[in-house]
């Protein structure tokens, strides 16, 4: 009994001691949580400082056949003017813009490079000029002077600037195009499906175009107008073919894709007779026929749209239709322009960085789309032109001394004088010899 009392007494003392340790305070839902330690303050990483250069007041000459001096007065113009000021301060340089006539550019650049005194640090060239200069080793490849993977030039523009598997031609945006203008009014009156609707459904094909052209060829009207040289190239490329493999230097006009394209082009002229004959001017006549409402479709580029704002009918713009071997719609580009860095330029890697810093990357493409909206008559045409920027197929075959190699060849096919196989067999050997000589394979 005494043991039980002692045990009870000890338990009571323990409870009282525990209560005393808690301060005898009642805990409720409003009681504050015990104070927690503040987490350690995370030190901010110092901002990465922009690399600056001191080129000692060096003059950076930018040369082209037109004056590239930025002009203020617009939002983009003011930004471009400010870019020049920022670059001059960052590098301690003076930016100067010089004009050299188009016809003198190659000769002046060649002579200046050979004298080790390039006419400019940055020189504007087209792809024909660039290809020739690359073969002479007169230009720097960007791959050899910078880490091309860190360049702001996107993949599409890198491909457009590539020769011999290296990037030489610099562009910060593209406005390339190449498709078909069509007379919407004529299509509606004939009860034909609008080509844009077919395009968006993936059904704008050679067969669809031919069907429309046949139905639009009535009386004095024709389904199509065009130059045989352009219609031949477009028929080859939209069927998955090429005029030239610019990497290997092989002329590919006798490939199955190319031959099928030329056969189709020949049928438009000779079998179906849906192409309005030209009257001596293969450039202006096709465009004139379309503007006058005499044909339903014609080949053309976006820059031609501005001259068609006053036509007495509604028109639209779509891709050239794809052939049976074509996997997608394509923007056919056989010539382009951009900037290059000639051999002999001091510190070419810094010159490239100066060029990059001068570009309006933050507004890339905005002015191009705004231009489309200004010159195109409807949203569908603007959409097509915008899509074309993402579907560029650049093949600079004329630059490999082939510019005039096929003059008369495609004409003889369109006139029915020769079959495609006969005409190509006649010129392929000489064309291949030209390319081999140009690429130094002889």
UniProtKB/TrEMBL annotation:
SUPFAM superfamilies: Periplasmic binding protein-like II. PROSITE patterns: PROKAR_LIPOPROTEIN. Residues 32-44 have a biased composition (Basic and acidic residues). It comes from the Bacteria. InterPro entries: Bact_solute-bd_prot1, SBP. Residues 1-24 form the signal peptide. Keywords: Cell membrane, Lipoprotein, Membrane, Palmitate, Signal. This is ABC-type glycerol-3-phosphate transport system substrate-binding protein. It comes from Lederbergia wuyishanensis.
């Amino acid at each position: 009994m005494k043991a039980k009392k002692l045990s009870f007494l000890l338990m009571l003392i323990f409870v009282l001691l525990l209560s005393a340790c808690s301060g005898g305070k009642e805990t409720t839902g409003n009681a504050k949580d015990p104070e927690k330690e503040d987490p350690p303050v995370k030190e901010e990483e110092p901002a990465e400082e922009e690399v600056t250069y001191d080129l000692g007041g060096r003059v950076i000459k930018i040369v082209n056949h037109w004056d590239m001096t930025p002009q203020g007065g617009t939002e983009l113009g003011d930004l471009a003017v400010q870019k020049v000021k920022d670059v001059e301060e960052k590098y301690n340089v003076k930016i100067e813009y010089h004009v050299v006539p188009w016809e003198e550019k190659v000769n002046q650049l060649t002579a200046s490079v050979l004298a080790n005194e390039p006419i400019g640090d940055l020189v504007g060239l087209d792809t024909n000029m660039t290809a020739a200069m690359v073969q002479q080793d007169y230009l720097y490849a960007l791959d050899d002077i910078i880490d091309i993977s860190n360049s702001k030039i996107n993949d599409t523009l890198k491909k457009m600037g590539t020769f011999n598997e290296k990037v030489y031609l610099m562009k910060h945006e593209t406005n390339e195009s190449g498709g078909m203008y069509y007379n919407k009014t004529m299509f509606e009156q004939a009860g034909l499906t609008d080509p844009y609707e077919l395009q968006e459904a993936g059904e704008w094909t050679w067969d669809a175009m031919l069907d429309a052209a046949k139905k639009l060829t009535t009386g004095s009207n024709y389904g199509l107008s065009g130059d045989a040289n352009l219609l031949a190239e477009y028929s080859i490329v939209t069927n998955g073919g090429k005029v030239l493999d610019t990497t290997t230097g092989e002329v590919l006009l006798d490939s199955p894709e190319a031959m099928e394209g030329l056969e189709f082009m020949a049928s438009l002229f000779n079998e179906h007779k849906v192409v309005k004959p030209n009257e001596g001017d293969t450039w202006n006549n096709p465009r004139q026929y379309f503007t006058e409402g005499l044909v339903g479709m014609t080949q053309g580029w976006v820059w031609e749209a501005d001259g068609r704002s006053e036509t007495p009918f509604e028109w639209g713009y779509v891709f050239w239709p794809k052939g049976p071997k074509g996997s997608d719609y394509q923007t056919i580009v056989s010539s382009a322009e951009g900037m290059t860095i000639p051999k002999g330029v001091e510190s070419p890697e810094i010159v490239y960085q100066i060029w990059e810093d001068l570009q309006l990357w933050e507004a890339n493409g905005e002015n191009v789309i705004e231009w489309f909206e200004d010159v195109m008559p409807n949203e569908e045409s603007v959409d097509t032109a915008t899509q074309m920027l993402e579907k560029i197929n650049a093949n600079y075959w004329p630059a490999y001394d082939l510019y005039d190699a096929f003059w008369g060849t495609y004409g003889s096919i369109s006139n029915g004088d020769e079959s495609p196989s006969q005409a190509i067999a006649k010129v392929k050997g000489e064309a291949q010899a030209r390319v081999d000589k140009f690429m130094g394979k002889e």
